[in-house]
Write a structure and sequence with these properties.
This protein is an all-alpha fold and 78 residues long. It has a domain at 32-59. Helix content is 58%, strand content 0%. The N and C termini lie far apart (66 Å).
Length: 78
């Protein structure tokens, strides 16, 4: 099932977007739909990656010793 969506965009932007759609031999509607699908997919992959990193982080036995480190010493030259 599809739903209609009404957008308000500046006229110049719509003109440029129509040209882009024509160059790609597609429609403004198809470009907007693809952008929405890509955006949702990217967000889903980002969330899954964060969950996986947190999961792996909770299982690691690695220890990081930050004792004796300070920001200034990382810039010192020998």
């Amino acid at each position: 099932m599809t739903k209609n969506l009404t957008l308000s965009v500046p006229e110049k932007l719509l003109e440029r977007f129509r040209l882009l759609a024509a160059e790609r031999k597609t429609s403004v509607n198809a470009l907007v739909r693809q952008f929405m699908e890509d955006s949702v997919g990217l967000e889903e992959r980002r969330r899954a990656a964060i969950e996986r990193m947190l999961e792996l982080g909770s299982k690691t036995e690695a220890k990081i010793d930050m004792g004796g480190w300070d920001r200034a010493s990382s810039y010192e030259r020998n």
